[in-house]
UniProtKB/TrEMBL annotation:
Pfam families: Peptidase_U32
InterPro entries xrefs: Peptidase_U32, RNA/ubiquinone_mod_enzymes
Entry protein name: Peptidase U32
Domain of life: Bacteria
Species of the source: Paenibacillus stellifer
Length: 649
């Protein structure tokens, strides 16, 4: 079954969570089905979902007999320990030949090439593809289709498809996320449940209060986005050049999914048959009546703002087996001396005898010139000028860069790029880095695959940021071939996964060890709540100044900063702190220790840098293991200290 409009293929892609659901869905009005096998995909939380190897093989035969396509999700980040399992699984998939694999980790294309497999690859939405350079880079890696970023509007999609010739897939219906794909680390850092490995705890659907300037605002569920709904806009989707219309729902029941698929399939057939006389709203009431949440067109026609967020108990109130569409805030595990000792012992088992802790360097990311000068005066090895600058500070100017270059001494001055880069951003940075007078900097902190491709030939040293989500040595080697000279380890790594990776990496490895790194990075502007709503009470922030917006539950407060691009960064409520174990980390393979200093005063930044310098050299109390000694050596300025994802196995 294949649909065409003006000679171009239009595919309706349906989800299936079990073999029973697949058997029903594949006979509905779809052209293709996507599903997961027994391992290595993003829907491993619900028992009984996903297909066995035998069911996968049978499903492919059924799909082919109906002239339909079948795609298998292999869209987890892969740990070093899972690479052999992935080799075996990919070999099996090559034998049964699905029409494509949907992948997130850069190791999968590498394995497909290494093993000489004939598998087609589609880039998952978790690759967060959002610019033309990313599309070109994925094409170079053998990817034949890209699932676009959830935040992509149709005009941008049209441009990317037209300029690249790549097939694009776009979510048209179902559950969405308020955070940029693969840029939500809340669940992994706080609970050890990685959202990039299919185990998200759904902190975006908690009940929060918003506080700012001493006032409380009635936000309720400020991150809980409505479901995507593009049923009435199929003509615009087709006109934009989208090849595949993707319905979310691998965790939904068969009656619900088949109802949605048949409605969309019927609408596509009616439009193809008679586009001028097409009626957009034939099944609109049916879909609305059976919604799980209220509907939105999300970013398809531009930035939606607060109308993308639910303000009440959502939809029909039916959600999995809980009867609720929201989740409950969960407290973070308290830091204990016992856990610190166990971490040190486990790291000690990974020591590399050729390494010495005092050879490791300190890197600092800063938000303004005062912080930058303080870091330079402390003679840090690497200074990162942030590409996403938190308000009220403004982006570093060319004049700022020239001034810092004059006083940097032996410090390497690195210009960080924005995490999300539009075509406009590339135009701006091209002028600065390629066409203009060469900057007196020592390198670039690259944040997305497109930036790696674009600037690998400029002569600037490329350092990979955490947002590249490098989780194994195969992914690291792929980026090294593209030009990276140093990588930052994924902030989602648990202790065992880290231990299996750091000591084996061919590239120098950096790690974020202190500060309040972003747990959520989103296009959604949380500050809009405070600009359009009237406050309902007064209350001061507990750990940050009242000028900072915080999201608050009964379990804690998370500060939120807005950058110069209007994007929101939700940070740790506590300070990440690996001070008691930096020597072990250095001996296990870390060569650069990064302090995320964007929210610190210059005085606090100096204090933190000196503590880590002492810890690496073995001087002072900073090397002690007890929590009390740690607190005494460097008192937290936020809600306390946390060990992040490293504390989990």
């Amino acid at each position: 079954m294949t649909r065409y409009f003006n000679g171009k293929e239009v595919e309706l892609l349906a989800p299936a969570g079990t073999f029973e659901i697949f058997q029903e869905v594949v006979r509905s009005g779809c052209d293709a089905v996507y599903l997961g096998g027994p391992v290595l995909n993003m829907r491993m939380m619900r028992k009984g979902y996903n297909l066995s190897r035998e069911e996968l093989a049978e499903a492919i035969q059924i799909a082919r007999s109906l002239d339909k396509k079948l795609y298998v999700t292999v869209n987890n980040l892969l740990s070093e320990q899972e690479l052999e399992e992935a080799r075996d699984y990919l070999g099996f998939l090559d034998e049964i030949r699905p029409d494509a694999l949907i992948v997130q980790d850069m190791a999968v294309p590498a394995l497909v090439r290494e093993m000489g497999l004939g598998l087609q690859l589609h880039a998952s939405v978790m690759m967060n593809t959002h610019n033309l350079e990313m599309v070109h880079a994925l094409r170079d890696l053998g990817v034949s289709r890209v699932v676009t970023s959830r935040e992509m509007d149709l005009q941008t999609a049209k441009h990317l498809g037209r300029e690249s010739g790549m097939e694009l897939e776009y979510f048209v219906h179902g559950d969405m996320c308020s955070v940029h794909g693969a840029n939500c680390y809340f669940s992994s850092q706080v609970f050890g449940m990685s959202s990039n490995r299919g185990k998200c705890m759904k902190p975006c659907r908690w009940d929060y209060r918003i506080k700012k300037d001493g006032y409380i605002y009635p936000a309720e569920y400020p991150l809980a986005v409505k479901d995507m709904y593009m049923y009435e806009h199929l003509p615009e989707l087709i006109e934009s050049g989208i090849t595949s219309f993707k319905i979310e729902g691998r965790m939904r029941d068969k009656d619900f999914i088949t109802m949605i698929v048949n409605s969309y399939g019927d609408a596509l057939d009616r439009y193809i048959d008679d586009p001028v006389g097409f009626e957009r709203e034939v099944d609109a009431k049916l879909l609305y009546k059976n919604r799980k949440r209220d509907f939105s067109t999300a970013y398809a026609f531009g930035k939606p703002g607060l109308r993308n967020i639910n303000r009440r108990y959502e939809g029909t109130g039916k959600f999995y087996s809980t009867g609720k569409v929201f989740s409950t805030p969960t407290a973070e595990r308290e830091l204990s001396e016992d856990r610190v000792l166990k971490l040190k012992e486990r790291l000690a088992a990974e020591l590399r005898p050729e390494r010495t802790p005092d050879a490791a360097g300190i890197a600092v990311r800063v938000n303004n010139m005062a912080q930058a000068r303080a870091a330079l005066e402390e003679r840090v090895e690497h200074l990162y000028l942030s590409g996403d600058v938190y308000e009220p500070d403004r982006p570093f100017t060319k004049r700022d860069i020239l001034e810092l270059a004059r006083i940097k001494g032996e410090t390497k001055l690195i210009l960080a790029l924005p995490r999300m880069m539009t075509e406009l951003h590339f135009d701006q940075y091209d002028q600065l880095l390629i066409h203009g007078e060469r900057l007196p900097i020592d390198g670039l902190l690259v944040t997305n695959l497109g930036a790696v491709r674009r600037y690998s030939g400029t002569g600037y040293e490329l350092i990979g940021d955490t947002s590249l989500n490098i989780y194994n040595t195969l992914a690291a080697k792929t980026y090294a071939r593209m030009g990276l000279k140093r990588l930052t380890v994924s902030s989602e790594m648990t202790l065992d996964h880290f231990a299996g990776f750091a000591s084996k990496s061919d590239l120098p490895v950096e790690m974020v060890v202190h500060g309040t790194p972003a747990l959520m990075y989103m296009e959604h502007d949380l500050f809009e709540n405070t600009e359009v709503m009237e406050p309902v009470g007064e209350e001061d922030n507990r750990y940050v100044s009242n000028e900072v917006l915080v999201l608050m539950t009964d379990k804690g407060e998370n500060p939120v900063y807005r950058d110069q691009h209007g994007r929101s960064h939700l940070l740790f409520a506590k300070e990440l702190c690996y001070l008691p174990m930096v020597r072990e980390l250095a001996l296990a393979g870390i060569s650069s220790f990064r302090i995320e200093g964007q929210t610190y005063t210059p005085e606090r930044l100096r204090e933190v840098i000196r503590a880590y310098r002492d810890a690496l050299s073995g001087n002072g109390a900073a090397g002690e293991t007890s929590e009390q000694e740690l607190v005494n050596s460097l008192t937290p300025v936020y809600a306390g200290y946390t060990l992040g994802s490293l504390q989990f196995n």
